[in-house]
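User: Tetrahaem cytochrome domain-containing protein. Structure?
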Amino acid sequence: MNWLKFTAAARIATILGLVAGATWADDTADDANAGIPDAVVEECLACHGPLDSLIEKTEGWMTSSGILVNPHITFDRSNQASPHRSGNGIIPCTQCHEPHPLPLTDPVPEAGIQTCMSCHHTGTFRSCTDCH
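Assistant: Predicted structure:
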């Protein structure tokens, strides 16, 4: 997935939904993760996991307005349209992270709350339709 090829609206739609209890205006959006095999997540977790470790590393992420967010926690969104929704409950890593080659050819940028802000540009983690 190359983020540079996405429009700003597509990036926003891809990232929204990191906060527990978020609701969505409708459930007509296609599941952005349809057809992504568990193997994609498993491949990433082979080096970057386990998932519990990733959750722990990002448990203190906070927006400038003081909202705690953790992008590695998954929520039951079976009744909500969300670009983070996944049939297996795990959001594919490539929704937020650019895949890198193995072996590494260039340094991989450190992820941080700024990664979320590339789409959650208001820092509020509200539905896109609240503003757009």
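Residues 39 and 90 are 11 Å apart (CA to CA). The chain has a mean pLDDT of 66.
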